[in-house]
Design goal:
Largest sheet: 3 strands, mixed
Order of helices and strands: HEEHEH
Strand content: 15-25%
Structural class: alpha+beta
Number of helices: 3
Strand order of the largest sheet: 1-2-3
Oligomer: single chain
Number of strands: 3
Shape: globular
């Protein structure tokens, strides 16, 4: 399976209605290591574990092909506050 930051970005936007940033963190850009920031209203009122489970469920087919995956999940309000820091 060929993965790219763009592919993951589009899938998260579509399935989680998210505004987010996806970064390929692989040294040689082999698309096997990603760091994602997902900002979605679907995270409102959900604890961190549930948010991560939503992301993991969205990428269930892709995760077995990814070597390293780091995620940060925020609501739009949390994202706005973090950007003001």
């Amino acid at each position: 399976m060929e993965l790219s930051a763009e592919y993951l970005r589009e899938k998260l936007q579509r399935d989680l209605e998210a505004e987010h940033v996806v970064e390929d963190t692989t040294l040689n850009r082999c698309s096997c290591s990603f760091r994602v920031l997902v900002v979605s209203a679907k995270f409102e009122g959900k604890p961190l574990l549930q948010r991560h489970r939503l992301v993991n469920a969205c990428l269930a087919e892709e995760l077995p092909h990814i070597h390293a995956f780091e995620q940060k999940t925020l609501t739009p309000d949390q994202w706005a506050r973090e950007r003001q820091k």
